[in-house]
Write a structure and sequence with these properties.
79% of the residues lie in helices and 0% in strands. It is mainly α and 243 residues long.
């Protein structure tokens, strides 16, 4: 009887860590991908990029903020060197995202880790961390399901924006620019509710906002976010250690 219980528990864990479950867990982020990806496609088309160029940009660069920046700088006749360095510094936050996720995949080879990290985004990171609150481990298959679904959705959204964008002169009027922040707020609330540590999480969240606002007065917005993330995470770690 006890062996049957263990077997059912194992099978349940396997199902929860399956590729298909990763696909299902990506569904709440689809609206964010579709709206922001659509807007990115519109702006890229407005900047003069062809459908093929937009497709390659979404598949190879695969970063919302970077694609917006690239489109804007291309429209302004920015140099390739300037575009590359700007995108590099804006996306430095991915070092932090990868560092936070890496402990869950230490048992994998470097190649398999790179396959996971190559498709890691802000959204998939948020979903993965939300899962980490409830699970002791993150399945490689589940992570691939999450990442690949997000990747495909982003590509489709970009191409849809590029194709239909000619009829939408001002996509921000439809509220598309707010869909992504709204999605992250939802993920944050779910994660905080699941942790049952509202006081500490609230202190960290407030600290992050205050530090981010202060840091952006001195540095650029992207650097300010990185500084706020590091310092707020340090504050949370200290609180957890001494309480």
């Amino acid at each position: 009887m006890q062996e049957n219980i263990h077997l059912k528990t194992y099978e349940m864990n396997q199902d929860n860590g399956s590729f298909l479950q990763g696909v299902k867990d990506c569904v709440p982020t689809i609206l964010g991908y579709l709206s922001i990806g659509f807007a990115a496609g519109v702006i890229e088309k407005t900047a003069g990029l062809s459908l093929l160029e937009i497709a390659l940009l979404s598949l190879i660069l695969y970063a919302g903020s970077a694609q917006f920046i690239a489109a804007g700088m291309i429209a302004a006749d920015g140099s390739a060197t300037a575009i590359i360095f700007t995108i590099f510094f804006v996306n430095l936050r991915h070092l932090l995202l990868s560092a936070a996720v890496s402990p869950y995949f230490r048992h994998l080879s470097p190649t398999r880790n790179m396959l996971i990290g190559a498709l890691l985004t802000d959204e998939s990171f948020g979903v993965a961390m939300n899962r980490a609150v409830h699970e002791s481990a993150i399945s490689e298959r589940w992570m691939h399901g999450l990442n690949i679904t997000a990747y495909i959705n982003w590509f489709i959204a970009n191409m849809a924006g590029a194709f239909f964008g000619r009829w939408i002169a001002h996509p921000e009027q439809l509220g598309l620019d707010f869909a992504l922040p709204a999605m992250f707020i939802g993920l944050l609330v779910l994660q905080m509710a699941g942790r049952n540590q509202i006081v500490r999480d609230s202190i960290v969240a407030i600290s992050a906002v205050v530090i981010a606002v202060g840091a952006t007065l001195v540095f650029s917005g992207s650097i300010g976010i990185i500084v706020a993330t590091v310092l707020a995470a340090t504050i949370g770690m200290v609180i957890e250690k001494w309480t």
